[in-house]
Specification:
Layout (H helix, E strand, L loop, with lengths): L9 H9 L8 E2 L3 E12 H5 L7 H8 L8 E11 L9 E5 L9 E5 L25 E6 L11 E4 L30 E5 L16 E7 L5 E5 L9 E5 L5 E5 L7 E8 L9 E6 L16 H9 L10 E4 L1 H7 L3 E16 L9 E2 L2 E15 L39
Keywords: Signal
Amino acid sequence: MRSTLRFVSVATVAAMLAAVPGSAQKTTGPKERYEMDVATASGFAAMTAGGRKPGIGGMMGMMFGGGPDNQVARTIELRLGSNQPPTKPPVRGDHYFQPQAKLGASLPLWGPEPGTPRPREDGNEMPGNFERPKGRLLLFWGCGAKAGPGQPVVIDFAKVAAGQVPPNLFTSTVPRIREVMASNSASYAGWPNGKSSKAVPKDSSLLGAHRIASNAGPEIGFTLAQDYMPALGASTAPQGDGSVMIRWNQLQPATGYVAWAFGGMDRGDAGGDMVWWTSSNAREFGGGLWDWLPPSVVANLVTKKIVMPPAQTSCQIPAEVKKASGEMLIGNLNAFGPEANFSYPPKPAGGAAWNIDWTAKVRFRSHTMLMIGADFGGMGGRAGGDDAAAEKPKKKKCKGPFGIPLPDGAC
């Protein structure tokens, strides 16, 4: 294992190069790039994390007395990209962990199966069973008791061509950031994959040394001093003016927060209005706001009030949103976290060429999902917090805007 003292932050590297006007140092590579996305899910998000499909019993158990300790799940996404072909197809690798990760000796990285369609990589994927909804979509944004001017923006699905997503719906200001993708790599492998997928234990720890070995490039090694982010505990409370207050615990590692909610779901042939609200102080939906974002990007979005600052712990859903959404909203809260960057070898002194073998990036976030608006006949349900309201699940399945499936029992 190479000494971690030799690793250099990619951000630091870029800053050093930029600070030297007219620098003539030649840089090549990296030959290999690695990304590790780490998340902590709580509330209803914990029950669907990692592809879980909770049953009615599990949902009810969580709603009526399940505390934060049994509402937390951890997820990991691994992506390896190389600019050279594998020594022997298919692309194959392993991420080796310390015992405290409780993930076994390694997680296997596999490339896409031959003939597998390439997934969209912009973060705004539609489900395979996408159907054009009936009725209208009402867009709201911003925290506050009342909706701001010019709201809602109304999209009439009767005027949208079949099979098309309404234009300019998802944000173009905050795209999802993926530096390692199948589309920009000669060799690509990831986890979870079609051959391997497992739940990450709640007591897993990522602290310590990590090693990645593959048949498509040099060995990668780094040491993490940052572990999974703490869980978000979010609660909701209806206000006398018809709005809904969301409150959450401040997370020390968080760089910023964004919330969004869906309501007025399609319940059959009658159609009706669907509602989509975001806490952003501008019309910015989806994309990177649902994902991981670098701290520098988040800091810029905070200044633009697209992302809430790390000290903020509440946001009010306007009364117009709650009124238009009917009985229930599906709420989401995303806490962006820190990022660790590594590269090898270190920058040589003087003007010698810098031939970078590999870079590695580890990103963190914490997120939660909760039901907003139903009272269970006077009994308070919890979704990551003590006073969060939750909807009594029914056996009927339902979908949110654009046919996006919601958890079992969500309506």
